[in-house]
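Project standup — Tuesday

K.O.: blocked on the structure for the chain from last sprint. Re-posting the sequence here as requested.
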Amino acid sequence: MTTDTLDLTDIDITDATWFADGMPYELFARMRREAPVRWNKLPDGTGCWCVTRHEDVSAISRDTETFSSNKAGIFLHPDQVLPLDLARNLLLYMDPPQHTKYRLILQKAFTPNTVKKLEDIIRARVTKTLDAVVEAGECDFAHDIAVPIPLGMITQLMGVPDEDIPQFYAWTEQIEAAQRADEPNAASNVFMEMAGYIHAQIERQIGEGNEESLVMRLRAAEVEGEQLTDPEILVFFGLLAFAGNDTTRNTLANGMHALLEHPEQLQELVDDPSLIPAAIEEILRYTSVVRWFNRTATKDTELGGQQIKEGDRVIMWYASASFDEEVTEDPTRFDIHRDKPDHKTFGGGGRHFCLGAGLARAELRISLEEITSRLKDIKQSGDLERLPSSWANGLVKLPVTFTPGPKLGE
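H.V.: unblocked you, prediction finished:
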């Protein structure tokens, strides 16, 4: 559908129907040209500012004093997933100095050296996942491969058994659905169930003395004499089980779809795996699986020629910023040979840059190394199904076929 003749003032870009067939590239390009900071009317009679340019998203991300995560949350409704008072215990909802303290503690579990030590574990998880499908010669890539790899890694890092993975998957699906629900607090019961489960896991691991699990390493981490409390660890794992799984799985599924749509580039990765790290960066840019987050203005300010008032909601459209023509040449072209694409997939920079970026990159790289090696002649074999959401770029279904191969993990 052409958007050239539409009145931008009448468009609600947060409506999921705009994303039913993928990214509305033309609409975002027009917004960046004509209204890069645009007032967006919402169905409830309120509105929000939609920010679509790369430089403006970066500016908001780095100015936590003016644009707050804590004041009204990261979604359009302050109580969208959880009551705001509870959600404020999540790192994503914190502003400095509270955010600084918690990030310093948590990032000790995600240092580059720590992630490097996990590579053999990641590869074993990927091998196990591919073993489950490789003999059949077909699978639903979104469900059978993209889901179990990151979810299995998170549960393994947490030190919980594989037999509990289906329960974690159910919880993450319910939390994701809560983000799209009409009623607030839709995930409160889910987090209560997860909290009870994770509390039991903490008690078990303390008893076992399992010092290598992420639970125990977080309990031991200390910054300026302060440590996380057990309730704070519980809340962190609620976030990790959702955010650390959902984003990576959607990137892997959408990334494979992009490669299947560009078979010549997929073949390049098969022929030369050294190209995979650069391809991962283009996949991260091109898929932009978290399309936006909200901030709230703490004072009257100006951005992109618009006067923003204290209390106004401001949506940073990462999915548009990563396609800004001022930063990326021919941005709608998928090209694994781009030189360090400047994307906003892990946030706009600043304090809220994704804590798990290193782990996500490692999982994606190792997954593609094994997939391109083992799933020979992989092709899409049916229609894909997209998640009905303006916030998450997710695939529910991606059927593929490939030449049957042997298991490796036995």
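K.O.: great, moving the ticket to review. Residues 178 and 186 are 5 Å apart (CA to CA). The longest strand covers residues 292-297.
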